[in-house]
Amino acid sequence: MSLLDHALKAARALERAELRYALVGGLACILMGVRRMTEDADFIVEAKTMSEVRRLVSELRREGLPVVEGEAEAAFRERGHFTIVTREGRLDFKFASSPLDFETLKRAVEVRVRGELVRIARLEENIAAKLLVLRSLKDLEDAFWLMVEYWDTIDWARLRELMSGDPLRAARELLEEVERELGSEAAVRSKLEELKSYLNRLRR
Fold it and tell me: How many domains would you assign to the chain?
């Protein structure tokens, strides 16, 4: 059993619960070709009532996923997230609350993974979330990789709209912020130099 297997179980549960969802974050990037490891499968979920949340909990349990109903209910009330911990990693479910969340859900695309259909965030929403919301060094690396590899595929006007400005400028500013905060560590400096080379390629 792998993290992807658990993510497919969660996707089946979400489909049966008839809830809009999108797989986002690191695992979505891996499915787009990013070469990295992740211990999390992140989902954005739209639920409008507590009964829908309880239906989701029931379907997750039907898939053998150890969800705590009280945590899911509290996350819904707070428009936050709840987590299912497995031996292979974590499944994180965030209830949609921001404009970017709802855009991600609206524009998610279906892809076939191991013969099953899974809804994943589009390139533009995934990049925007990594640069605007998540903002870790790994997220910055993912965003740069996606922008380089899919330069001719990305809807740059759409990405600028999502980010309310120039995505390359936002990427540069985030890179500078990470460098100020973590640049004294040797391993981080090495990664920052690699990311600067990505940014230079993007500027061309």
Answer: 2
Boundary-marking domain end, from 121, 138, 161: 121
Angle between helical axes of 167-182 and 156-163 (0-180°, round to 10): 60
User: For 16, which DSSP code?
Assistant: H
Close Cβ partners of 1 (under 8 Å, ≥ 6 residues apart): 86, 87, 88
Mean local confidence (pLDDT), 170-180: 88
Shared-domain flag, residues 132 and 165? yes
pLDDT in tens, 149-168: 899 999 999 999 999 999 99
Alpha helix stretches (DSSP H) within the chain: 3-16, 25-31, 50-62, 69-78, 99-107, 123-129, 137-149, 156-163, 167-182, 186-203
Can you tell me the distance from the alpha carbon of 15 to that of 87, in angstroms, rounded to the nearest whole number? 24
The residues that bridge with 117 in the sheet, in sequence order, are: 112
**91 shares a domain with 21:** yes
Residues 23 and 75 in one domain: yes
DSSP 68-82: -HHHHHHHHHHT-EE
